[in-house]
Amino acid sequence: MPIELSKDDRAMIRAGAGDLDTAGVQALEAGVVSRLTKMIERGEISHVTKNNLRASITLETGRGK
After folding, report:
1. Interatomic CA distance for residues 58 and 42, integer angstroms
2. In Å, how far are 2, 4 from 31, measured between CA atoms?
3. Which of 1, 16, 6 is nearest to 56 (CA)?
4. What is the DSSP string of 11-37?
């Protein structure tokens, strides 16, 4: 079950997206949600904190580089 991001969470992702276009921001958001959902399902975290969100954004923006 995917997580629901708040307005503030989405703003944090947009800020972390840098100069990505709209499609890039949407892909980043999807990647972050997927990463956080998997972390919850594996039992690594019980709920999403701002630090979890920041780490996921960093890992997703660095992916593929």
Report:
1. 20
2. 11, 13
3. 16
4. HHHHHHTTT--HHHHHHHHHHHHHHHH
Query: Is residue 6 within 8 Å of 29, Cβ to Cβ?
Result: no
Q: Which band of pLDDT confidence, cut at 50, 70 and 90, is reported for residue 13?
A: very high
Q: In the numeric block, which tokens belong to residue 33?
A: 């949600």
Structural contact between residues 63 and 31, judged by C-beta atoms closer than 8 angstroms: yes
Q: What pTM, to 2 d.p., does this model score?
A: 0.89
Which pLDDT tens digit goes with each residue over 22-60? Answer: 999 999 999 999 999 999 999 999 999 999 999 999 999
- Pair 32, 14: CB distance under 8 Å: no
Closest CA to 62 of 37, 44, 40, 35: 35
Instruction: Say if CB 2 and CB 37 are below 8 A apart.
Output: yes
